[in-house]
Amino acid sequence: MEQSYLLTYLLAVPIIGSLLLLFINKEKAQTIKYVGLIVSLIAFIISLIIYFDFNNQSGDFQFVHKFNWITDLNISYHVGIDGLSMLLILLTTFLTPLTLISSWSGIKNKVKEFTFFMLFLELGMLGVFSSLDMFLFYVFWEAMLIPMYFIIGIWGGERRIYASIKFFIYTMAGSLLMLVAIIWLCVYSADLLGGFTTNLLDLYKTGPTIDTTIQGFLFLAFALSFAIKVPLFPFHTWLPDAHVEAPTAGSVILAGVLLKMGTYGFLRFNLPLFPQASIDYAGFISVLAVIGIIYGALVAMVQTDMKKLVAYSSVSHLGFVMLGIFALNQEAVQGAVIQMVNHGLSTGALFLLVGMIYERTHTRKIADYGGIAKIVPFFSFALLFTSLSSIGLPGLNGFVGEFLILTGAFKSTVLGSWWFTIFASTGVIFAAVYLLWMYKKVAFGEVTNPNMNSVTDLNFREKLVLIPIFIFIVWIGIYPSTFLKVSEKSSEKVIEQVLNPAIINLE
């Protein structure tokens, strides 16, 4: 298999799979489910081949494939990955088949359409993480809105229409500003590069030369789009609605991968393209990140709905990632990258568990539970294990990311204050409060709801979904260097692009 074509093959698999589904009779639901699962597993296998061929010692882009697309505007199909995108591509292809298995019995109507949109969504996410052309990136960025809109709007809860429209409008509003900034950047760079181009690697050379005032405007236009997707406080209000109304598979992909597109955007675009503006705004964005950490945790504490509690925990946990990115040193950025993966695993597993128990009880109200540890012991163990992972218990994945981020923020010369670390640390304590409180209410005490006595424990299929996630939760917690070494050189290069942009320009 030609190495340079591997990424294109990876992107082609969900396209071919989704088109194949169109030719299958919609009455054959089981066949459709198996086709969707096989296609997503093929994508996972290709991503593993890419991972094993990936050179950890290089911070450069690998598996690059490029050809002219719109010749008159010098727009290309241009894909490639470095260590930052490698981990996120693996996370995407790992979670997609698991979410399809998890929805095996939960999605009963319009199975063909649901599977089609899930594969389409996988394509959009993989495209975002591998695009090296600004126009191509924007196409994938907008394209993934469509399947997520329908997944929430068709298979969601009672207020699904409101939630899907709110999600779409929020994201679209930020995206349009980013489109204006892309055009501005490309037109500005045309004189310096000898012609109009949307090639990201060429724009890396011209972005740092832009006047600092204009850099600031462009930075904010990109930042708004990415901050909405993260979501960074105060742009988070669409997230709880989207999570609560989305079906389980939608919530898992939304938390596991889609939110990382925002944090990835800051690392891939804002920092290298606008280094001076990144330094200027680092303190401001870090303040918003710390507010998000504390606010998300405090609001999670007062939730009565399990799914809403987990949704607000995402606002808190992604605040840690944003703090790590803008601390702008090796420990913090590496912590941010690994925490993206950690959040995808831990919060994805929490949403899976909430979905599994909801299928049995048809309630997400914490007060409706109590004492179910005796009735569903494996579920109760899984919920405790995942909650401890999300809290950041040493030995599990969450601890690694949070420790690196807080250490990096404490040492950061760009932030220049250890107050960021002190306030952010409270988020770890609050996480223990709301997650362990939720667990105590759900698992322990007397069974007061007679409906709970007939609840069955997790079946083989559900355990099959959770166990691979649990393996990685422990693996990252005990031996994180397996994953940290993948992104090490790439994160070094991003920091170098921000702190020493002239060096990059001379290359």
If helices are DSSP runs of H or I spanning 4 or more residues, what is the number of helices? 20
What are the secondary-structure elements, in order, as H or E? Answer: HHEEHHHHHHHHHHHHHHHHHH
List the uncertain runs: 503-507
CA gyration radius, whole angstroms: 22 Å
Strand order of the largest sheet: 1-2
Task: Tell me the distance between the termini.
Answer: 31 Å
Number of strands: 2
Proportion in β-strands? under 5%
Shape descriptor reads globular
The helix-and-strand class reads mainly alpha
Largest sheet: 2 strands, antiparallel
How would you state the average pLDDT, rounded?
Answer: 86
Task: Name the helicity range.
Answer: over 70%
How would you explain this protein's 3D organization?
By secondary structure, the chain is mostly helical. The protein has a domain at 274-507. The protein is built from 20 helices and two strands. A hairpin with a 4-residue loop joins strand 1 (62-70) and strand 2. Helix 2 runs parallel beside helix 4 (111-130) and helix 12 packs parallel to helix 17. The longest helix is centred in the middle third of the chain and has 34 residues, at 160-193.
